[in-house]
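Suppose you are handed only two things: the residues of a chain and a line of SMILES describing flavin-adenine dinucleotide. What would the bound structure be? This form records exactly that question and the answer produced for it, so the two can be stored side by side and reused later without any lookup.

QUESTION INPUTS
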Amino acid sequence: MTTRIERHHYDVVVIGAGGAGLRAAIEARLAGKRTAIISKSLFGKAHTVMAEGGAAAAMGNANSKDNWMVHFRDTMRGGKFLNNFRMAELHAKEAPERIWELETYGALFDRTKDGKISQRNFGGHEYPRLAHVGDRTGLELIRTLQQKIVSLQQEDFAETGSYDSRIKVFAETTITELLLDGSESADGGAVKVAGAFGYYRETGEFLLFETPAVVLATGGVGRSYKVTSNSWEYTGDGHALALRAGATLINMEFLQFHPTGMVWPPSVKGILVTESVRGDGGVLRNSDGKRFMFEYVPDVFRKQYAETEEEADRWYTDPENNRRPPELLPRDEVARAINNEVKEGRGTQAGGVFLDVSTRMPAETIIKRLPSMHHQFKELADVDITKQPMEVGPTCHYVMGGVEVDPDSAAAAGSVIGLFAAGEVSGGMHGSNRLGGNSLSDLLVFGKRAGEHASAYVDALGKRPKVATSDVEAALEVALAPLNRQGGENPYTLQQDLQAVMGDLVGIIRREGELTDALKRLQELKVRVANVGAAGGRQYNPGWHLALDLRNMMVVSECTAKAALEREESRGGHTREDFPGMNPKWRQVNLVCSLDKSGDVHLEHKPLPKMRGELINLFDRTELAKYLTEDELTEFDALEAK
Ligand SMILES: Cc1cc2nc3c(=O)[nH]c(=O)nc-3n(C[C@H](O)[C@H](O)[C@H](O)COP(=O)(O)OP(=O)(O)OC[C@H]3O[C@@H](n4cnc5c(N)ncnc54)[C@H](O)[C@@H]3O)c2cc1C
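ANSWER OUTPUT
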């Protein structure tokens, strides 16, 4: 009996319904494209919803000295100069407009006394820059984008009699494969996207989307790690779909371990404690009661951070005349510091450190400014954060690496055409480390660009690409394989084994021997994952879903481990105990992953694009000397002399 496959035709298919996906879909619909939005989880449930702190945009409301150039500088510093400079530039320039635009869609950010959008402090940002709605900013962002989509659907209903005529949401639907043009290959052997194949999670029924343009907006990869702030959907699907379609991934060695995840009770280990806790005055102490971050200010940041508790405390009320508290160093620095305190025996019993707001501000202020944190700790750990400190430790949070894209159009690099990527699934924007708050603004800026350029691509296309029947059959066979396999390996055991390899051997601190060991174990796991089985049928079957996700987790983890072994330096979200410190030579290199014909990860060195003169001139020479090679500095001097 043949398996039924539901067929759909769209101009643009957006995979992912977080901020990047929704913003891309709005833009595609505004450009008149028939647009599908596909979401693995319920519509409205994505990491974007969980974002607490805010969206970084240099609006200059809290400090008029802020502008796109300062934001650009902070972003490049945070990423330790490995960022794609053009993405960082576009992001810094366009973020304020994207935030204001959200208010025209119905968002309402917290206000300053004089009625402007309020902006809060966050690690690595020179001025208060995060537009926020209490500690529920992501919720407001998603609510607003969804509301905009509904309003567009209402316009379409008025015109066509159908709400879904131009924009339709497929919730609880997982895409397992991208399909390429079966009839021709374009210039230089590149192949056009022709569709996407997947299944409804509830019924297990299959779907085929025929479309010339796909925007990937699938978010992160955290579920490959033991301790993570990421929820079940984040299995690196978009990264793996892109690789298998012929696109490339960059910066996969860079993972952000957020310094403050809950460490207790074990059932909630990894759940995020927002950085706003520190931005609003929370301090970190070890089990001796010592405010230890002062010991961990690296040389590159020494000029900007306070040396005494008194100066750090004064900064909250007088930022003009004092330097920032070291608790607000970029996340990689704070995470490593906590890791070290615990390792040296100054941690809490549960393996974390203390984060305290209770002694820093009145209970009413805590409840007003951090309502979700107050609720989270009360409900999950029975801790009242207005009276007691929280216990926190590093948790795998965000992947800086992702699909290599053209910065202006968000089009994927590699041998595939018609594929775009925005948000966490794309790489380059954040370099080796993302600043808090830069993700929400990244989603809006590059989500819009991806939707716009995907639409323009469709407009310019002569003949529509065609899906080959044999490719659909192959995708179907792969999807059904775990169900047809008798005595296959248990997907949950495999996921646990993978998480152990990644958490223990490719975690926050890395070493050559362990990385080599990790790669060996990943090869063994790959063989086992190829033999994964799932009992039961296709109707809501989480074991089967995980069996399919594992294929993606494996290939993405291989990219991370290979790149981590290759990069012999420490920078941002990649710390090599055997190569401490940054090496300017490595700053010139992006590690690019592709898949070869046998499905193995191939790693290539690619030079980083050179920063334009007017951008590099935004930094002073002393600062550049921390990052650039001698040759680059000589070039900079020549530029300055002109
Ligand atoms: C707890 C937490 C707090 C955070 N706080 C902040 C903050 O304050 N400020 C900030 O800037 N950033 C924050 N971040 C990071 C930020 O929220 C994320 O990086 C960002 O929301 C990612 O957005 P996105 O649109 O790229 O993807 P997401 O919002 O992660 O959405 C991904 C979408 O893709 C779908 N998907 C995945 N795979 C498939 C598939 N195979 N088929 C179909 N659909 C698929 C998912 O279901 C989901 O709809 C936080 C992250 C977490 C986890």
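WHAT STANDS OUT: The radius of gyration is 24 Å. Residues 542-566 form the longest helix (25 residues).
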